Amino acid sequence: MLLSILVIQSDSADNGQERPDGDPTNRRLVLPLRDGEIPDLTQTDPKGGFAREGKSYCAPVAISNSLIAILGDRWQGSQYDLVNEIASEGFMKTDPVDGTGPNGVMRGVRQFLISQGYDEKSFKIDFQGWRSHAAEFSSGLEKPDPASFADAMKSGAVWLNVGWYRKEAESGDYVRIGGHWVTAIGVKPSAPPAVMIHDPAPRAGLEPRSQLVRLKRINGGTLKGTQKNLPHPADGFFEMGGEMVIKSTADCAIIDGVVTLRFTEPEKDR
């Protein structure tokens, strides 16, 4: 069975829904999140007023899906407000054209949580994957490990950095043509592994939808592209299948990296 944080989108977690009024000090951090607590916002939703119509806002939208559930009454506004806040210069510094890289995501999340009153010692942010990132965020895992981010979801949140690739017929190598961010909401770490996600891209649907993504371990080949750390052996990385909606110009999606957020002392009772 899936170690599930969410399987079906709840009606109570509508896109951009205003959070109820309340005293932020009365909201306790309780993890793992329950079914229906993680929304599925579309990055091009016009109600958000996102820069460049949200075309490169996959990262702040994917991250906001988890953060708004974690923050509860600490956040006195809509999810649209949260996206624009974390995408801003003070946090993730999302570029309207180029989007957000791993360091931008991790530094932005850290700074935002601190701004919301969380002690920096009360949480830990790590990265696993081939993409360049600051040493302070290194997990020591060069290849994404479903078992490790399944464990992270027990006490925090997980976001997947997806790479769009074209596959070379003769060599079997993968050429990276772009990237994307999605919210992980459940993990089946046993073989073959699977991940349940919320995908902020409009191609995944404009209504809330949980997608079961089956992971296939790659054996051999090379990841190619213009990014730092490429070329890189593809062996041991995961191709994303099942209900993953592939970008029309790509042949496949591969998990390039994983950002995990763990709270060190979550309250277990409700």
Tell me about this structure:
The protein is an alpha+beta fold and 270 residues long. It is 16% helix and 25% strand. The protein has four helices and ten strands, in the order βαααβαββββββββ. It has helices at 58-71, 79-87, 102-115, 146-152; strands at 3-4, 123-129, 156-167, 174-188, 194-198, 211-217, 222-224, 232-233, 238-240, 252-263. A hairpin with a 7-residue loop joins β7 and β8. α1 (58-71) packs across α2. It starts with a strand and ends in a 7-residue tail after the last strand. Residues 1-28 have low confidence and may be disordered.
Structural category is alpha+beta
- Overall geometry comes to globular
Helicity level = 10-25%
Number of strands: 10
Whole-number tally of structural domains: 1
Along the chain, the helix and strand elements come as EHHHEHEEEEEEEE
Indicate the low-confidence ranges by residue numbers.
1-28
Largest sheet: 10 strands, mixed
Helix count from the secondary structure assignment:
4
Compute the gyration radius: what is it?
17 Å
Strand content bin: 25-35%
